[in-house]
Design a protein that fits this description.
This protein is an all-alpha fold. It has one domain. It has two helices and no strands. The chain is elongated and about 50 Å long. 8% of the residues are buried. The mean pLDDT is 88.
Length: 73
Amino acid sequence: MAANPPAKPHARLEKWIWILIYGGLFAIILGIVTGRTEEALGWAMAVPGAALVVVGVVLIYVRSRLPDKKDSP
């Protein structure tokens, strides 16, 4: 019987990074489309979406600075 491969140590963080980035981009797109008819609502959707994308990008930097389990003894 084959052994299960070891779990990635930062898998949860990586999952949230991509959820934030793609969710933020989706909100930006919805904000742009909505802004054509309701400008205030469009901005209210696009600005938080952009903030989510920025948080996701910052988390990519944070993830790059975290040590991997295989690097530590």
